[in-house]
Design brief:
Layout lengths: L6 H22 L2 H7 L2 H8 L1 H83 L6 H17 L7
């Protein structure tokens, strides 16, 4: 028993052939294709079909590696951008903490220096006021010493003569 092709398969094949011829006709009547076919490059490729087929196969086959290369370039650029942002954030954080430490140290140093200046001012002003204060004349000192001796002479203990 030989298997015969059903009549619907040949009808489908004729429909597919008609659609393909319409597609080719619409492609050939496209204004951009017509403009390209009038160029010298298209006329050269029309005269050399093997070279045209080779270029078509090369362009088709090189599309995938070129696409992979462009994807890698974009991803690498994004990675570098993210890395640069992270690196910049790290540098800013470290510098900010360093600045905070330096400012805290300067605060403590300024507090210590102001305490030293205040203590020095008080000590120097006391010394200056002590050195340059008016002293009572010598007569008053001897008179005061005599009064102290007289008071001590009035109070004599039981063992003093």
């Amino acid at each position: 028993m030989a298997k015969e092709e059903p009549p619907s398969a040949s009808k489908d094949l004729q429909e597919l052939q008609r659609k393909l011829s319409l597609l080719i006709q619409s492609f050939q009547t496209n204004s951009k294709v017509v403009a390209f076919m009038k160029s010298p490059v298209a006329r050269y490729l029309d005269r050399h079909p093997f070279l045209a087929l080779t270029m078509l196969i090369f362009a088709t086959m090189s599309a995938i590696p070129v696409a992979f290369f462009l994807i890698i370039v974009v991803l690498t650029s994004l990675g570098a951008l993210v890395g640069a942002v992270l690196l910049e954030g790290l540098v800013i954080s470290v510098c900010g903490l360093s600045l905070l430490c330096v400012l805290c140290g300067l605060g403590f140093v300024s507090l210590a220096m102001s305490a030293m200046v205040t203590v020095s001012y008080i000590v120097i002003s006391c010394l200056i006021s002590y050195w340059f204060s008016p002293r009572p004349p010598m007569e008053q000192n001897s008179n005061t010493d005599c009064q102290l001796e007289m008071k001590s002479a009035h109070f004599k203990g039981p063992y003093q003569k």
